[in-house]
Amino acid sequence: MNKRRSKGRPHRQRAASQKGLYIFGALVTLMAVGAVIGVAIATSGGSDSPPEAVVVPTARPTDVSQQGRVLGNPDAPVAIVEYLDFQCPFCQRAAEQVMPAIEETFIAPGIASLEIRPIAILGDESVQAAAGTECAKERGQFWAYHDIVYANQGSERGGAFSDDRLKEFAEELNLDTGAFNSCLDSGRHTETVEAATSAALADGISVTPTVLVNGQVVDATIEAISAAIQQAAGS
Q: Which CATH architecture fits 9-232?
């Protein structure tokens, strides 16, 4: 994203004021939405078993940058990092009910970026699901795979993320299944996921989702993330 340098204090002050008004207005709207979503998160539960047919979610907008596990402009002034476990139902709810609003209001306009850091604290299927996203990342499709994994989440250790199922996801996304299957079967990203998990635990990250905004841990809600972004953006 091209950056323009303003000349003169008055223009800088107007730009800062306009950005502040934009984020404040967006925050008020998101807080209202967040109140409704908070109730849904508190009362809903995860799926008991994987569906027979693979659920393919709606494709993401193509006008927002995707670079590996980073969504949005990596040079944005505010950096959001999310640690997640793909078997974690609270992570699924955050991905489907919280982050879309954050992406639309703060990431698409270039105010913030979002980096996903998959870890595995709920067992082997968490390891394999995260490894699958790494294999998809090699094909430039991390975010599409991230979304299809969540859309097909089942109960913990219930077979939702078996190797065969993970390969079905890749087929439904029209990935190069030969390359994907070879990657997954090789187990080369198992160590990647295990190392990321160990590093997260060493840093005190033992609960998922854990969300950080410019390095500060915040609650995984629209209200908390929006307020932290507003503060970090200085508006």
A: 3-Layer(aba) Sandwich (3.40)
